[in-house]
Write a structure and sequence with these properties.
heterodimer; A: mainly beta; four-stranded antiparallel β-sheet; about 0% helix; B: mainly beta; seven-stranded mixed β-sheet; globular
C-alpha cells in the first residue's frame, strides 16, 4: 500500500527555523517526484515545488523560491520542506504529494507560527 | 505561468442532483488536468487525471471532460459524501497551479 506519512504539527515563533518531513512507503521512492502544497487557513491549494528523489532535481514555484528549501534523503525514503526564518504568514497546513501527475497525498502537517 | 479559474466558487445542491464545475486555463494545456476532492479537515483526494480518466476506486458518477483550455467536472446523482470542495490543477508544465476551488454545499 502506497503511503506518504508526514511529521506532526509544529508550533514555532517568528524567526525560528523548521524542517518538516514526508516519508514514502509501499513503492519505489526514487521513481516518483514528491511535491509540496500549501493551504493557508480557510484558503485554497497552492503548489510550492517538487523534487525527484532519484537525482534531487528540484523545481520551485517562483512565489516560494528563496522562501523554502525542498530536499530529500533517498536512503530513508523521506522528503523535506524547510524554512530558515519563519514568518506568521507561513501558518498553514502543508501537504506532500506523489508524482508529476498527483495520485497520493500525505495527511498534512499543520505549522503554526505565532509570537 | 498558467492560471486556472474555476466557476462557480460555490454551489448549493441536493442529494440526487447533477452538478457541473468548470475550470478554465489561461492557455492551452492539452488534457493535462487533474481534479481533487477535499473534505473539511482532510487531505485532498485524487479523482481524475488526463482530464477524463478516473482514479481507481472513484465512483463512475464522477465524469471529467474537456481539453485545451476548458474543462468540466460533472457529478451525477449527488451523494451525501460528495459534499466537499473540488479543485482542478494543471500539470502541463512548471509551475503547476490549482483553481481556487468550488465548494459543493447542501
Amino acid at each position: 500500500e502506497v503511503q506518504l506519512v508526514q511529521s506532526g504539527a509544529e508550533v514555532k515563533k517568528p524567526g525560528e527555523s523548521l524542517k518538516i518531513s514526508c516519508k514514502g512507503s509501499g513503492y519505489s521512492f526514487t521513481s516518483y517526484w514528491i511535491g509540496w502544497v500549501r493551504q493557508m487557513p480557510g484558503k485554497g491549494l497552492e503548489w510550492m515545488g517538487i523534487i525527484y528523489p532519484g537525482d534531487s532535481d528540484t523545481r520551485y514555484n517562483s512565489s516560494f523560491q528563496g522562501q523554502v528549501t525542498i530536499s530529500v534523503d533517498k536512503s530513508n525514503s523521506t522528503a523535506f520542506l524547510q524554512w530558515s526564518s519563519l514568518k506568521a504568514s507561513d501558518t498553514a497546513t502543508y501537504y506532500c504529494t506523489r508524482g508529476l501527475i498527483v495520485d497520493y497525498w500525505g495527511q498534512g502537517t499543520l505549522v503554526t507560527v505565532s509570537s | 505561468d498558467i492560471q486556472m479559474t474555476q466557476s462557480p466558487s460555490s454551489l448549493s445542491a441536493s442529494v440526487g442532483d447533477t452538478v457541473t464545475i468548470s475550470c478554465r486555463a489561461s492557455q492551452g494545456i492539452t488534457n493535462s488536468l487533474a481534479w481533487f476532492q477535499q473534505k473539511p479537515g482532510k487531505a485532498p483526494k485524487s479523482l481524475i487525471y488526463g482530464a477524463s480518466s478516473l482514479r481507481s476506486g472513484v465512483p463512475s458518477r464522477f465524469t471529467g471532460s474537456g481539453s485545451g483550455t476548458d474543462f468540466t467536472l460533472t457529478i451525477s446523482d449527488l451523494q451525501p459524501e460528495d459534499f466537499a470542495t473540488y479543485y482542478c490543477q494543471h500539470y502541463y508544465n512548471h509551475p503547476r497551479s490549482f483553481g481556487q476551488g468550488t465548494k459543493v454545499e447542501i
